[in-house]
Amino acid sequence: MEFETIPTVPTADEVLDRSLRRAAAKKKQKINVDRANEEFVRAVASAIHDKLKSVVASFPSFERLPPFYQEAADILVSLDRLKKSLGAVTWAADQVRTIGSGYARSMRSAEETDRVRRQAVARIASVVHQVEDDLLFLNEARNILRKLPHVNEGEFTVVVAGYPNVGKSSFIRLVSTAEPEIAAYPFTTKGVIVGHRDIGRRERIQFIDTPGVLERPADERNPIERQAVSAIINTADVVLFILDASEHCGYTLDDQVRLLEEVRGFVDVPVVAVANKADIRGIEGCPAMSTLTGEGVEAALDLLLIYRKDTTQTNLREPPQPGTQE
Question: Measured between alpha carbons, how far is 37 from 27 in angstroms, rounded to an integer?
């Protein structure tokens, strides 16, 4: 994933300190004082320009990213804010180069090159400090984005959805390589978790465990919930929606079914509904499993594999609806 390769973004002072040290080393190589001052300004401007440009170049082109990563980046750090900061740093790099070149040329006719050198450095430093907040933001964004999981668009993907604490993470842990945190309280899953399961012939299924999605208007959902919706919409070949008929999750079954219907409404892929915690209570006409005992988990997995061979078909048989008979 491209975010993983983004290096640490330096602060304004770090950019200046490194560049001034390099320029000072080059200055010592010149015997003529005036030429040394000119070389110093050119070296400072060049080093800062190149460093700022490398910061911008280290971020990927967001328009070319898969939809999931575009949505996730926008949710977590705001694409508009990222583009604004990258634009500001680009502006600073160009300004520094222009200022450095102008002052270096003026030194050839200046009587006091030391004074001109100091003026040049002051102006260059001022420009760099103007984008200090942007550099800090970009480093913060880098630290957040590099933690996003790797989602392979070429693999058959099952997105596991449902209310908090219904057993999504437990199911993922049982059927894949993912190691989600399991706890008996809502909102344990704070981000998107990805796991895989080999199914032979060099094939594997990709599972995406989403945070609990609450049934409320989109503009009222928090960033974690919006990440879940993004994962469902942009990556799923099939959605496994887990219901908790026991209602030990803290939400009524009616509320859960309403959310299930909402999910069916905003995806164009099959949605398989399964009742978890069947050791406590099941749902008539709905496939049942218990992630506590393991009963029915493999059967639920088999239901998902029905859709592996051709997820582009539009006439696939829909799985049983909660509360209905086959």
Answer: 7
User: How do strand 193-200 and strand 203-209 relate by DSSP bridges?
Assistant: antiparallel
CA 76 to chain centre: 7
User: What's the domain count of the chain?
Assistant: 2
- Residue 279 in any domain: the answer is yes
pTM over 0.85: no
Q: 297 with 244, same domain?
A: yes
The residue segments making up the domain with residue 239 are: 156-305
Burial class of residue 243, CB neighbours in 10 A (0-12, 13-18, 19+): buried
User: Do 104 and 84 contact (CB within 8 A), yes or no?
Assistant: no
Residue 195 maps to a domain: yes
Helix (H, G, I), strand (E, B) or coil at 198: strand
Residue-by-residue pLDDT tens, the chain, 326 positions: 678 899 999 999 999 999 998 877 666 666 677 888 888 888 899 999 999 999 999 999 988 888 888 888 888 899 999 999 999 999 999 999 999 999 988 988 877 888 988 999 999 999 999 999 999 999 999 999 998 888 888 889 999 989 988 999 889 889 888 666 555 555 555 777 888 888 877 788 899 888 777 667 777 877 877 777 887 888 899 999 999 989 999 999 999 999 999 889 888 999 999 999 988 888 888 899 999 999 999 999 998 988 886 543 433 334 445 544 33
Residue with tokens 């008539």: 284
* 148 to 59, 61, 186: CA distances (angstroms): 14, 16, 21
